[in-house]
Design goal:
There is one protein chain. The chain is an alpha+beta fold and 114 residues long. Helices cover 43% and strands 32% of the residues. The protein has a single domain, classed as Double Stranded RNA Binding Domain. Helix 1 runs parallel beside helix 2. It is elongated, with a radius of gyration of 20 Å.
Length: 114
């Protein structure tokens, strides 16, 4: 797991960096392949805090951003978005596998019926 945190237009603090790293590292439990992540924290117009997260894991790529007046709230919201994307992708893969099994069952003739 590789997590890079970048600060733009603001001072880097260990508290915010640690919080973002902890939240993003929790996403690894949903992914099978090792995760590489880029977190960008920026301050716009002195009040708006923007968080942008990119996660790459094998062939899967996820990206989300969020802007609010509180940096910690922005981090929480963007993590919720990424988690929804990951779970949705996992459900889509599982649905395709189940659909393939059902299709193959429909193509095979029933044995023992006349």
């Amino acid at each position: 797991m590789n997590i890079a945190v970048t600060f733009r237009h603001m001072d880097a603090t260990d508290a915010v960096k640690g919080y973002a790293t902890e939240k993003v590292s929790r996403m690894q439990r949903f992914l099978r392949a090792p995760m590489k992540s880029q977190v960008t924290l920026s301050c716009q117009q002195d009040r708006l805090h923007r968080v942008e997260v990119e996660i790459h894991s094998g062939r899967a790529h996820f990206h989300a951003h969020e802007t609010s007046e509180d940096m910690y709230a922005s981090i929480d919201k963007v993590i919720d978005k990424i988690e929804r994307q990951i779970l949705s992708a996992k459900e889509a893969v599982a649905g395709k596998k189940k659909g393939a099994e059902r299709a193959s069952q429909r193509l095979l003739p029933d044995v023992g019926e006349d």
